[in-house]
Amino acid sequence: MDWIVPLADLEYNEEENRAVLDVLHSRWLTMGAVTQAFEAEFAALSGAKHALTVSNATQALHLACLAVGIGPGDEVITPSLSFVATSNAVLYCGADVRLADIHGEEDFTIDPSEIGRLATPRTKAVIVMHYAGYPCDMQAILAEARKHNLRVIEDVAHAPGGKLDGQGLGTIGEIGCFSFFSNKNLSTGEGGMLLTGDDNLAARLKLMRSHGMTTLTYDRHRGHAYSYDVVDLGYNYRIDEIRSALGRVQLAKLPGNNALRKQWTELYQKLLAGSGVSLPFLNPRGEPSYHIFPMLLPEGIERKGFIDRMREKKIQTSIHYPPTHLFTYYRQRYGAISLPRTEAVAAREVTLPLYPSMGQEKVEYVAAAVRECLEQG
Ligand SMILES: *Cc1c(COP(=O)(O)O)cnc(C)c1O
């Protein structure tokens, strides 16, 4: 499909090409100096003590759950309105999820009062997700978590570079899990990062990322170690130098790219005012990363028809998200769950194109198309 406006676009140029070729010329391809530099630079941007790369955010979420001790018999509270990986990571540990509702039409992040409603004596943690890059109400979440003695993990897949009360998102809970999938704000194709301020958690995450081995190939290559022990059942969740090199270039561009996303978001908000669509996050907390632009269709507009009419104008749209509790696998596992605010939002949500290089003309083209497609509905 040759879109006039795709949903997302890579912000790649000559710099990414050169970074990859430099790695190839160096003849060291995985977990080396480039990855260490990427981790140090990402930690500095977010204000975190420890940063650990992985190959994707799903692995990051899995390791985060393992590191805080989630296992069979435990429960973790997760938002249903997220990518399914947020909940799947819990199930990988043999634990169960307790799916939570959102605030409502103006704020699609987890409602902190859900923690009290869902927590049982088996509940050990909550994973929050900064939907579209808009910070969750972390103060209330941390207070609820303390009350119920829960660990707090942040799914920061949408929000690299975002902040709340001056703190980097992903450093407010105990562990932050980032994604560098190709459509995210910082993209390396596949890729991810873990942040934590806790030395013991960092050591455990590092061990579990690489087979539970006590030393790494790179340490042995540099003569820092000659053998190793295996002290736990770990995984191979490492990243390679090629993607870390892409990550470093993308990280340098992130503040500028997030600023452009903000500019196009605010232009959309201005152009769509009074159009009939309902826009969430008009008064966001903190400093969002503006990952995607979600909107709600007016009641009575049939979504599939609207998306088809946008497609005819060569505009790609998406849905964030089909709620986790309505997927076949989750229904079979947990039966019928009712999350009325999530269901109301998810039924009417459409995500419009948003990417840094989009430009004013394309934002105007999409906003005008939305108005026309609503009239035809
Ligand atoms: C993209 C995404 C993930 C998964 O990231 P991967 O790097 O593709 O594993 C998890 N959670 C959310 C909210 C996401 O958007």
Overview of this protein structure:
The chain is an alpha/beta fold. It has two domains: 14-250, Type I PLP-dependent aspartate aminotransferase-like (Major domain) (Aspartate Aminotransferase, domain 2, 3-Layer(aba) Sandwich), CATH 3.40.640.10; 255-375, Alpha-Beta Complex (Aspartate Aminotransferase, domain 1). It is built from 13 helices and 13 strands. It has helices at 14-26, 33-46, 57-67, 85-92, 113-118, 138-147, 199-209, 217-221, 241-272, 303-312, 328-334, 340-348, 360-375, and strands at 50-54, 75-79, 96-100, 102-104, 107-110, 123-129, 151-155, 163-164, 167-168, 175-179, 192-196, 293-296, 349-352. The strands form four sheets. The chain has a seven-stranded mixed beta sheet with strand order 1-11-10-7-6-2-3, sandwiched between helices. The chain has a two-stranded antiparallel ribbon with strand order 4-5. A two-stranded antiparallel ribbon has the order 8-9. It is globular and about 70 Å long. The two termini are 24 Å apart. The chain binds pyridoxal-5'-phosphate (PLP). Pyridoxal-5'-phosphate binds at residues 56-58, 82-83, 85-86, 129, 155, 157-158, 179, 181, 192.
Please outline what is shown here.
Helix content is 40%, strand content 15%. The protein has 377 residues and is α/β, with parallel strands linked by helices. The strands form 4 sheets. It has a 7-stranded mixed sheet with strand order 1-11-10-7-6-2-3, with helices on both faces. Strands 4-5 form a two-stranded antiparallel sheet. A two-stranded antiparallel ribbon has the order 8-9.
